[in-house]
């Protein structure tokens, strides 16, 4: 199964790309809804809409699960990256209870799908443990547990934890869950098609013409509908949400252990900054410990291999590792104020929707988005509408710094971002190395592959004119501003860009 990176995730292993039913391209039909994007958000939303009686087409640019859904770790949580103490302080206690409600609804929805469609995806409800490792974290954990209880969750301090990790204080949160995300995704796709939904892969949506009837361009032709949902993880084009969502990368390894008793029978998290997340998953009869961490802002870490090395060293320090079987990294979008953006896309008509800003909880938020968007489209309202409205202005602590950071990154690049590297560095490029070089006043993003072939593209991201940075692990050019990603030859892998990086004819410009 294809994914948007060079490494292979545990969830791609032994799974084919989904082959949609061979239907004629629906050029003449006006659908109720076009869903753009075939990750967990798009597929869950499309299925719910279809079950609500809406005619629906889902268009995925590549293959189902190509985006972060193929590179996740698939914890399903009511416990979130933004803790309930912070949510209650910033949004009020009533809204904290609403957040707890929708996250529970999301986990229930996944369980119902697994039962209804008989999906073999290793879905399990498990407790989640949070481990505080110093006094400050322990005090924070006390408050988080209390705020979580106030929000209606089952949480308590406990003396033990089911993992060989040091801790000063531990808390358990009941009724979290885990599953195999791509097995689940492909089963949703089948359910959607069986229910009469239209599914198109290799179908990138490139342009939207607004009106009561929306028209989008795709390479296969135009699609028309009364509503459109961007389930693209971040919406394409330039939007205010790109200044409210920052792209981050997180690293994962799946290892096998010598001592069976070390596999946690729970979801486990420490409270470091960035935190580590641990769980066990059996795939094809083999058990894996899946551990994530080492997060950083996209494009801000030159040595991405070192991130994997630090993560592996951390795991080996606490677990008796036999082998590292899979390692991959993937991208998520951090929101500004602690909650995702689900609802009408700011700046677009009332019939254009979006779901983004999920931080590290997009299995839960992607599923929750489907619930909210289905309600908004089917009934016109939802009790969650205001809380998650993408147009909300919520100046909480950190907001100014966050937005300033996003805007300044963009401003820098708008006003001249040329690399200082010169042509000398080009000559020194080793195999499997990349660099942005400046040659005769032109910046060139150069990658010399393992066979010694040079791949040259413009380093200017077509989205907001920022400069891309090389990601050595996934062999991609990543944009630090809004998270667009491109292959060494410039092919767009990840939105919000709509087009590829411009090719550079290095033979004309560079004599090597
Ligand atoms: C390492 C890592 C671990 C994580 N672990 C967890 C976890 O344990 N639990 C959790 O809840 N969350 C986790 N997350 C977050 C979660 O995985 C994501 O938020 C979630 O997968 C996003 O799903 P999505 O469907 O919204 O987006 P994606 O899965 O990225 O899907 C978007 C799709 O849209 C397609 N697309 C883009 N542009 C277009 C276009 N113009 N036309 C057509 N298609 C287009 C893309 O090809 C892609 O397939 C993790 C994230 C990372 C990076």
Topology:
Layout: E1 30-36, H1 40-51, E2 56-59, E3 75-76, H2 84-91, H3 93-117, E4 124-132, H4 135-150, E5 155-158, E6 169-178, H5 181-194, E7 198-200, E8 207-209, E9 214-218, E10 221-230, E11 246-257, E12 267-270, E13 277-283, E14 286-297, H6 304-318, E15 321-334, E16 341-344, E17 352-356, H7 362-379, H8 385-388, H9 399-414, H10 423-427, E18 433-439, E19 442-448, E20 454-457, E21 469-471, E22 476-478, E23 485-486, E24 492-494, H11 506-509
Parallel strand pairs: 1-2, 1-10, 2-7, 4-12, 10-17
Antiparallel strand pairs: 3-6, 4-6, 5-6, 8-9, 9-10, 11-14, 11-15, 12-13, 13-14, 16-17, 18-19, 19-20, 21-22, 22-23, 23-24
Flavin-adenine dinucleotide binds at residues 36-42, 59-62, 66-69, 71-75, 204-205, 231-233, 236, 250, 252, 292, 330-332, 358, 360-364, 366, 495.
Q: Characteristics of this structure?
A:
single chain, about 500 residues, alpha+beta, FAD/NAD(P)-binding domain, Rieske Iron-sulfur Protein, nine-stranded mixed sheet, 24 strands, disordered C terminus, binds flavin-adenine dinucleotide
């Amino acid at each position: 199964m294809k994914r948007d990176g060079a490494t292979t995730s545990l969830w791609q292993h032994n799974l084919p790309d989904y082959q949609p039913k061979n239907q004629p391209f629906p050029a003449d039909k006006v659908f109720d809804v076009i869903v753009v994007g075939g990750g967990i958000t798009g597929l869950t939303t499309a299925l719910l809409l279809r079950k609500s009686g809406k005619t629906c087409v889902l268009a995925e640019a590549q293959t189902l699960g190509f985006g972060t859904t193929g590179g996740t770790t698939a914890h399903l949580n009511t416990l979130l990256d933004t803790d309930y103490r912070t949510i209650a302080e910033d949004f009020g206690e009533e809204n904290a209870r609403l957040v707890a409600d929708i996250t529970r609804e999301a986990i229930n929805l996944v369980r119902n799908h697994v039962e209804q469609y008989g999906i073999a995806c290793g879905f399990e409800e498990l407790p989640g443990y949070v481990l505080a490792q110093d006094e400050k974290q322990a005090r924070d954990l006390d408050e988080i547990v209390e705020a979580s209880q106030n929000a209606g969750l089952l949480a308590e301090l406990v003396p033990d934890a089911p993992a060989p990790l040091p801790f000063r204080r531990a808390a358990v949160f009941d009724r979290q869950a885990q599953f195999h995300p791509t097995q689940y995704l492909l089963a949703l796709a089948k359910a959607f098609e069986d229910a009469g939904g239209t599914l198109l892969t290799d179908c990138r949506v490139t342009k939207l013409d607004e009106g009561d009837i929306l028209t989008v361009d795709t390479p296969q032709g135009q699609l028309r509908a009364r509503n459109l949902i961007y389930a693209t993880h971040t919406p394409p084009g330039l939007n205010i949400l790109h200044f409210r969502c920052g792209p981050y990368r997180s690293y994962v390894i799946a290892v096998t252990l010598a001592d069976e008793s070390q596999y946690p029978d729970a979801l486990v998290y420490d409270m470091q900054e960035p935190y580590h997340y641990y769980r066990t998953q059996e795939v094809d009869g083999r058990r894996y410990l899946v551990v994530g961490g080492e997060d950083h802002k996209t494009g801000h870490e030159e040595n991405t291999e070192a991130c994997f090395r630090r993560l592996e060293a951390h795991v080996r320090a606490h677990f008796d590792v036999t082998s590292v079987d899979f390692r991959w990294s993937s991208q998520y979008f951090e929101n500004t104020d602690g909650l995702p953006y689900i609802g009408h896309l700011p700046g677009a008509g009332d019939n254009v929707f979006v779901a983004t800003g999920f931080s590290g909880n997009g299995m839960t938020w992607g599923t929750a988005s489907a619930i909210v968007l289905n309600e908004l489209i089917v009934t016109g309202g939802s009790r969650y509408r205001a809380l998650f409205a993408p147009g909300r202005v919520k100046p909480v602590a950190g907001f100014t710094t966050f937005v300033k950071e996003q805007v300044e990154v963009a401003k820098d690049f708008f006003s001249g971002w040329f690399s200082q590297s010169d042509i000398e560095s080009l000559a020194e490029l080793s195999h499997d190395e990349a660099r942005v070089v400046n040659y005769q006043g032109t910046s060139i993003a150069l990658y010399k592959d393992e066979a010694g072939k040079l791949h040259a593209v413009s380093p200017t991201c077509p989205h907001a004119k920022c400069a891309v940075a090389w990601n050595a692990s996934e062999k991609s050019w990543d944009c630090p501003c809004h998270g667009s990603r491109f292959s060494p030859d410039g092919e767009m892998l990840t939105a919000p860009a709509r087009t590829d990086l411009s090719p550079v004819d290095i033979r004309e410009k560079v004599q090597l």
